[in-house]
Every structure is written in C-alpha cells, then in structure tokens.
C-alpha cells in the first residue's frame, strides 16, 4: 500500500495500474462456439435491491442501435457470506457457457473525494458515512482512495481499515472565487453570461438594470465579476473532469469490475442554451471515458444550494429569494451527465450525512448480471460503440454503461513487474512509466518551451489554431510526467500567447487554462514560493492585457493566496484602476470633482491604500492614488497625497512616475514653476522620458522659453525606438517586469 500527496493530474492517477495488472485475472471468458462480448449490468427494483432469476429472454441488448443476441446470463453475487463471490449460470443457449467457465472476479472500489467542491462542515458527517460504507464492503473487495485535486491517494487494498483511517484525515475546503461586490447567485451568473456573450436574455437585462441602473462604471465592474465567476466554474469543472478521466483511463487497464464512488459538490453548468459556464461537454467526456474503460460511477452530489440559502452569510436578497431547486440543478448537471452514462447513478444529498445514498450504492452493487452477447466483426475495431441494455419488466431499473469498447483480438495485457518498487516510491515515477503519448500538436511546442522559444509558441496560437492547441494540451498526454511544475509553466506560456490573439474562442480557452492551472499549482498553505511565483507571472500578464474583466477576480484570488508579497495587493489596485479608466473612456471628461466619490473609484482607492501600507509598494501605490484623484479633477487631494512622499523612491521607474504625476497636479493647480521643477526632476530619474519632456516643453512654450522648448522637441523627434518611457506602461502595472518574473519562475520549475 502506498499513499502520496498528488502534484498534478498525471502524477496523481497513474499510481495503481501496474499494481493491479500484476495481480489481476483476465476478463471473464466464455466456453462457446461463437465470439461473445461480456457485458455486466445491475438490475434493481424500486428500493435498489438486486433482482435475481432473470433469464436471457428477459434482456434486450442493442449495440450501435442494432439488436444483439444474448447467448448467456450469469448472476455474480457478492451478497454471499463466503469469502468469495458466487457465480450462478441462470440460462444459456445450448453449447454456450456454463458456470464452470466463469471465475467470479473480485471487485475494485475507488472512493473519490472532490475536496475543492464542498465545505469542511458538510464533509464531517459525509466522510463518517463513507467510512461506514467501506466497513460494510466484502472483505475480498480491493478498495482505493483518491482525494483530488490534492489529498491522500492510496492504492487498492484489502486492508479496509487503512482506507477508513485515511478518510478521517482528508481535508476538504470548498474553493470559491472571492466574494464579489454583487454577490451573484449561480442562477444570476448563468443569466448574466448571456449579456457578456452579447445575447442578453430578458432576465439578464432586468438584472443589469436592478444592479447598476444604467451606470457605465457599475456595468464594467459587473462584467468583471461575471467573467471571473465563469472562469472559475469552468476551470474547476475542467480540472475535475480531467483528473477523473485520467483516473478512469488508468482503471481501464485493469481487467476487473471497477466502481468509482464519487463525492462531489459539483460545479455550475448553464441551463440556458448558449450560456455559460459551459461544462456540459466535460461531463459527457467523463461519461464516455468511463464507459469505454468499463468503469461504473456512482455519485453523491452534495447539494450546496439549501445550505447557502439558510446560511447566516447569505445576502438579504432585494432581488428576491433564490430558486433553490434551480440552484441545485445548476451544480448537479454535469455530474448527472456522466454518472448515468457510466452505468451508475447520482444521489442528491441536500442535508444530513448521506448514509441513505451509501446504503443504496452498497445494495445496488452487491450483485450483477454478466451477459454473453454475440459479437459481430465490426465490434472489435478499437472504437467505443453506443450500447443499451433493457429488461422486459418496466418496473425494474438497469444500471449499465451507455458505451462499450470491446477488446481487439490479440495477446493479453502485459504484466508490469512492480515487486521491487519501494512502498515509498513517488507517484510520479509510476506516472512516467505509464504516461500517455504526447499528441503531435504539443511535442514541437514542448520542445520550443525547453529551448525557451516564446516566438514559436506565439506563432502556434495565431488565428483559430490556438483553441485546438490548448484542447490538445489538455487531452494529449504530458510532455513531462515527472515534472508537474514544468507542465504548469508551459501551460502559462500557452495561455499567455492565447490571450493575445484576436480569436474570442482562443482567448476564452486561454483564460480557462490560467484559472485551471492556478488550481493545479495551489498548495495546502498560502505563500508557497513556487505557487506565488507562478501567480506573479500570471498576474503581471493579465495586468498587461488591460482587460480587467478577465483579470479582476483572478488577481484578487492571487492576492489572497500570497499575502506576504505586496505586489499582489498593488496588482489589485491596478486592476481596479483599470476598471475606473474604462468607465472614464466611456464618459465625458471630468471638469469638476463629484460631490461624492463614485463606488468604482472608492474601491480602487481602498485597494491602493492597502498596497500603500507596505514599504515595498508604498511609493507606487501613492503615486497611482494621486493620479486617480487627478483624473477625477480632485487636484488638491492628489497633490496632498503625493506630497506624503518626502524621500525619492529607490526604483527610478517609480521616481519618474511620482515626479510626472506631481508635475501634472501642480500644473492643474496653476503653479507652473513648481510643475517645471517636477518635470525636470522626472528627467533626472529617466532622462529620455518623453512624457516629462513633452509636458515640460508645453510649459516652456507657454512661458515664452522657445529655445529650450525647441531643444526638447528635437530630442523627442530623434528618440530611438529603444528609448522606452515608463509612462507608456503605467496602465499595465507590473507587466514591465513580466520577462524577469518569468525567467525567475523557470528557474523554480526545475
């Protein structure tokens, strides 16, 4: 038995295949004169009890819509009190199979816990019921534990007590975006997504009017909150789907009956056509993967909607009482999609410990029918085929996968030798041995990344190609299975390139990729050096886009994860100020200061004040505060703010910004001599700063000092393209240090 904390999808799910293959018997075979496909199904009554005594004439099987002959029916019963399950031939066609031809295979049960999808208080009674469920399983069942995306992972074992003990150590913490200004419910998020996509429904239009009353700056902040929530939900679902699919693919290598019992709070999936979060495809893909791998999935959906509504933290909703049923259904949809396709079922747990669901799963899986179904030449072509199994008695329920992947004729799977593997061997070592091959689209980009060739990666993302590249990266194997950090930095380079192309679809996939890998690199405790270095590069890249709708929620989350680095707090101030700037661009220039500071400006001022509390970001935060006052025509407030800086900043870039802003404020207050001195000081800090040169030249012309003004004009006209001006990068915050931060991150990924 091994236990490990996962560091990524591949490293977290490949730990067990070699162990099972070394010890597992082959798939049941039939003594028959015809080629038969084994299909296992559960048939239960209305109370979830297995139904005995069904004969082959009571089963109807179709594959790809065409009816197939059922040749034999065997009941595999795990309810026996003996040490092993029993196999009883119920009925056969003459000369087909008999009970002596089938060795009842043992079962593998994986308890999968989605630790980011529900809260700790809810987890306590649920995990207690999970422990009781494990204790009731037959002794010869092999049970594994898979807590993801981070948590305990244990290879399947008959030592059920070890699994029970490990369940008591699992840490669950729901991952949610920072609480926003508008406190949107999941249903409101879905409705408003139609607005961000340019097709607002009547519900979205009404909600926008209720929240913002036509205020442009309010709508900009609302857009950022909606976009951030959509990115979060889609990234969480994508990560969960990818992790589950990788686990299921590994299980598919094992020729035993496999059942995954998933405990999850789900993720929001739109119930409005064309809306977001668009997670339906992720659920469908997990279902197909499970069906092809011959894995049944039962899901306990921990419905958060009722608890959220009655929670003391729930907003007093002037917008009306949320539709609890709809809220729950939004979280449930994608779980329901793959649970049914994978031959299991979903049980909704709105309150309590969920023991009824675990008991139902225990009952339903305690016996199943193994059908021998006549094959045709096209069945074993290596593709998944749609399948349906029904029984004649309409009162009964059949639990069966909706897809089947019959094995091609050939030798049995190779046995992997694992006897000499130390119990403490890292999971990544096993992952490296069994990692999926890298798809052709990704290999040259991975090589370019190893050479640090960003240009090659950027070229591959041009036009509509970028969306396909990102999808291929998610699905096409891991170029560095033993180095999840390298994969995370590569993902960041792909996303950074994708965010800078014109295709809206590539941009959306790139944003999802950033949000997804922010979860992948997350460590149990905040302020982890690699996590914060990764978030720093992502944050600086998002600042550089000047698209606060994309970056606002992500950057606020990064500041929460890395409170020890004041640059994140400053980034929140920058992104808030970008929102204000977009609002200013849509409105007439400000001539007189408003009587009250608007909400958007106040939020930016508050964020900058938080950054000013740290010595490392104080000077820049104060300068940015003063410039915000300037744009709002609060010149005296701006000058008072910037005059709190009594000593020059050590960073010449910040010194230059401070003096340029001071000069502009003094000029607005009709103090030209002091303004000229400020602009000259700025040119001492940054001699080729064209913003300061132009401002000083204008003052000199107004004062009749034409010779010096002409000299400055000549300097501006003859400036080299290499003469950068920090003022040009003012609005993109720390993007000026992106290349340096990225180089430092690459050093940490080794």
Would you mind describing this structure in some detail?
The protein has 750 residues and is α+β, with helices and mostly antiparallel strands. It has 28 helices and 16 strands. Strands 1-9-8-7-10-11-12 form a seven-stranded mixed sheet, sandwiched between helices. A five-stranded antiparallel sheet has the order 6-5-13-2-15, with no helix packed on it. The model is unreliable at 1-26, 94-102, 312-316 and 410-435 (pLDDT under 50).
Tally of helical segments: 28
Mean pLDDT figure: 85
Helix content: 40-55%
What percentage of the residues does DSSP assign to strands (E)? 5-15%
Derived from helix and strand composition plus strand pairing, the structural class reads alpha+beta
- The rounded distance between the terminal residues' Cα atoms is 29 Å
Oligomerization state of this entry?
single chain
